[in-house]
Amino acid sequence: MAAGPDAPQAAAPETPARGRGGLLGFIAGHPAGVAQGLAYALLAVVILQNLEPTSLDLLFWSIPDIPKLVLILVAMLLGGVTWAVLRRMLVRRR
Hints:
alpha+beta; two-stranded antiparallel ribbon
């Protein structure tokens, strides 16, 4: 016997709840990925804002038309190397 339109139908199996869906669900499920994406976006903004050329004059030494980004990266690198050397010297004293 065929079931008619008024016959009770079997309920669809429910899927387990996964929390919120959409963008809020992604943010709640991947906070490190969202933070990494924001960091990349901020890095891109910093890079794009510091591409203009500038000159460096230090005593008798002059470098014309070097991008600000290069100066920032060189300063960061020199600061890191200085910190590593000083830390080693201070640790050896103890």
